[in-house]
Specification:
It is built from 17 helices and no strands. By secondary structure, it is mostly helical. Among the domains are: about 1-115, Tetratricopeptide repeat domain (Serine Threonine Protein Phosphatase 5, Tetratricopeptide repeat, Alpha Horseshoe); about 250-340. Helix 8 runs antiparallel to helix 9. The protein starts with a helix and ends in a 10-residue tail after the last helix.
Length: about 350
């Protein structure tokens, strides 16, 4: 029988290699064999939450983080409590519960400050940046990402610097600055490549593709998306893979490759439904509507209106603005579709 501490070490190593399925299995085994060791079990459950979140199993991840938090409360490990709160916030954010996620992250930030935990503070600033970006508060997102980057640099955490740069890349793209977005993603990609971070490399390749797409270089964008897709498939990240498929579909539509665009969208929709990703489904609905505007206009307009309604319902400001722009273009100048905005 394997030692549970050894299993935990193996699981951490697999997670560091972006092998999340293998890591999840080892974390489960470590938790099952922890016996009455609440501290070990809490660590295994928190790690399990991380691994599940990275492959799009957000509801399971949230439950695992909550179990870890309750055990950490019993052991009196406040740092572990805060780590579990942040993990649960990230899982909730991914399913559209960004208001609750923001509240949990602010609570964690206060806790880390009280403990003087600068690493915890840096990670939470990064997480808040992503949450603000999803909420559409782009200036706040940029501010949080910049704070996170500065603190990670002070701590010598190069991976954290890379993820902060990638966050800035996404925020600058939404702000209409693909040039700055490309610069940030390029710096992040160089760091992730050096660190051999498969997820980070995929993430930054996708970001570079979106920046090039926004700048009108569609063929180079596709090359970046395919690099990202191969890596996401390798690590089993269904959500990030689905977003990259959506970006590929948008680019193919702009290039007139309708067949590939439709196939990529169909696969993205399947994955977003499986992972219950509300934002992804909104983007796909708008893209499918634009793709079929010329042949199924009434259906396409209904899809656009429904996407707008859902974006309003869930408080997705960026997606709401995008849906309004698409709907306005469809009504006034259908020949301008597809829009290259998101």
């Amino acid at each position: 029988m394997k030692d549970p501490y050894g299993l935990l070490t193996e699981a951490d190593a697999e997670r560091a290699r972006s092998r999340y399925g293998a890591a999840a299995a080892l974390y489960r085994e470590a938790a099952a064999r922890a016996g009455r060791d609440a501290e070990l079990k809490a660590a295994a459950l928190a790690g399990l939450g991380d691994a599940l979140r990275m492959v799009g199993r957000f509801a399971e991840a949230a439950r695992s983080y909550e179990r870890a938090r309750l055990l950490a409360v019993k052991t009196g490990d406040e740092a572990a409590v805060l780590d579990a709160i942040v993990g649960r916030a990230l899982a909730l954010r991914a399913t559209g519960e960004h208001r609750e996620a923001a509240g949990l992250l602010r609570r964690a930030l206060r806790g880390y400050d009280r403990l003087g935990d600068r690493q915890g503070r840096a990670f939470t600033l990064w997480a808040l940046g992503g949450t603000m970006r999803i909420r559409g508060d782009i200036s706040k997102a940029i501010d949080f990402f910049e704070q996170a980057r500065e603190l990670f640099e002070e701590l010598g955490e190069r991976g954290g610097v890379g993820y902060s740069l990638a966050g800035l890349g996404g925020a600058w793209r939404v702000a209409g600055r693909p040039d700055r977005s490309e610069r940030c993603y390029g710096e992040a990609n160089a760091l992730f490549t050096e660190l051999k971070d498969t997820f980070g490399t995929a993430y930054s390749f996708c970001g570079l593709g979106n920046a090039r797409r926004m700048e009108g270089d569609f063929k180079e964008a596709l090359a970046y998306f395919r690099k990202a897709e191969s890596r996401y498939r390798r690590i089993g990240d269904k959500v990030s893979y689905a977003y990259t498929l959506w970006a590929e579909a948008t680019t193919c539509h702009l290039l007139g490759r309708r067949g590939r665009a439709e196939a990529a969208l169909d696969e993205a929709v399947r994955l977003f439904r499986e992972t219950r990703d509300r934002r992804g489904l909104i983007y796909c609905a708008l893209s499918q509507a634009q793709l079929h505007m010329g042949t199924r206009r009434p259906w396409a307009l209904r899809r656009m209106r429904e996407a707008l309604r859902r974006a309003q319902k869930y408080g997705f400001k960026v997606e709401r603005r995008y849906a309004r722009r698409v709907l306005e273009a469809a009504r006034k100048d259908p020949s301008s579709l597809p829009l290259n905005l998101a």
